[in-house]
Amino acid sequence: MKHVLRLFLGMLILFVFQYNALAAEQYKIRVVDIQKVQNKSKSFQRAAAILREKLNTKQKRLDEEKRKILKMEEEIKKQSMVLSLDAREDKKREFAKKKRYYKYLYEEFKQEVKDAEIEATKRVSKGLEKVVQGIADKEGYVLIFERRTIGLIYYDDSLDITDQVIKAYDELKLKR
Question: 129, CA 20 to 30 Å: which among 16, 90, 142, 158?
């Protein structure tokens, strides 16, 4: 009796796993790793490099302003004993003004970085959405999950279409 029960449970488990595998193929469910797309896509890397170059230019300007402030601070410290009280106050006001300007530039830079990242993410997301939609339509996929989707705990590697998405995305973007 125990052997029959074990055999029945084994067959039931086997049936459940087979049914799940067949159901995935029947409904054509796939998975894409967006992080891998970002790391391996040539067109994504090119867009990221352009963004980095733009931000590096602004960072250099910010660094130059910081150097000016530090230099001015050193001069004030060196000359504090020699300068008259009025001249010292003038230098301190000028220094405070430069610090406010630097803070303004820094905040502006942070906002530009945030805006540029949001814009780049939107642009890439739209492109990826078109690519994934095209693949889904062509291959007849019903669902395509992002690998890091909440609730997606496990998937078989055969369901991963990330390399196909990278290739299609690069072809779409490199044609332009």
Answer: 158
Q: 34: closest CA among 147, 155, 117, 118?
A: 147
Give a three-class secondary structure readout of 34-102: HHHHHHHCHHHHHHHHHHHHHHHHHHHHHHHHHHHHHHHHHHHHHHCCCCCHHHHHHHHHHHHHHHHHH
Homologous superfamily (CATH) for 2-175: Skp domain (3.30.910.20)
Give the residue-averaged pLDDT of 152-156.
86
Q: What is the Cα–Cα distance from 97 to 166, expressed in whole angstroms?
A: 50
The predicted pLDDT at position 124 comes to 83
pLDDT at 52 over 60: yes
Q: Which residue has the higher pLDDT, 37 or 173?
A: 37
Strands 29-32 and 143-146: parallel
For the chain, the domains span: 2-175
